[in-house]
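I had to read the description of the data format several times before I understood it. For illustration, here is how one protein appears when written out as sequence plus structure tokens:
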Amino acid sequence: MVTDLERGGEIGPLEGHRMKVTSLTFSSDGKMLASGGLDSMVFVHELGSGKRVGALAGHRYWIRTVAFSGDGKWLATGSTDKSTIIWDVMSGKKIFHFKAHRFPVSSVVFDPAGRWLATAGCDHRIILWDMDTGGRIIDCELHRADITSISVTSDGEFLLTSSVDGTAILWEMVSGDVIMKYGGDCGKLSSAAFTRKERIIVAGSSDGTVYFWDRVSGELLARLHCLDGGFLWSAPADQAAASGWFFTDRPDVIHIIKCRDDGTEPEVLLADDPERSVHLELYNRKEMVVGKLNDPEKYQREVERIVGGVQANWLKTYGERLKNRQIGHKRGEE
């Protein structure tokens, strides 16, 4: 079932598969939807009418990934049978059938101009194919484990791959050179992609965390943590926040640990401890976490303002007033 987000309502159901659907992709103009399934079939539907315009049979095992070319004329399908097929969408004919991967093909992507196709596999390899000749341009092994996704920049010059080895890698298409490696301590990455302006790399991990890195510097900007209810964003420490910033509607999940100057055991502050309340007031700040992602210049100005003392003095006196008020209130209850 497909939902029309602009006009509302549903399109479909779009039928055809006899078993579970395992992969979906829209054409760039949003007029067609391709689906691959456990039945090793690929179907193409026209979304305006819901009509099925293609039924593509050619793989021996189930489909793991499907991708349209930028003009919507070609469709690439990758399968557990270790092969990739390039189809002419209108005629349903095979253009190329690539059989270079030693293990299942996990992800495929065309460059925006349709000059080449990149395939990634569970053999840790990335292969770049020339769409004029069907020949290999690059065949390299950059990851230490299965590759889970592959994305391309809008100019077609860089590829981004993610892997269960816990890393995402940005590399140059022409040379195959690694430009930047992200992560390494994130758990198994299931996917990675560029944000709309391609300034930030986003990756999802098997541990339920979404990571955000600066594309150029590789700096970790923020994390979004998966909770049963509510949300929790966190940002690394900076000059103004020694333990980092966070933004959450679930302060009950935050554990605040007080380290002592005398070197004795750190103390976990209890829920009713005034110092814990002060910390939450000071560092649970949406503008600092989200600002680092959306407006880094404004974020840096705010950090400098705090470090410079204008905000620091206010935070100190405000924290002391809040602490005293809560302690006084607690004594009054006694």
User: Anything to note?
Assistant: The chain has a mean pLDDT of 89.
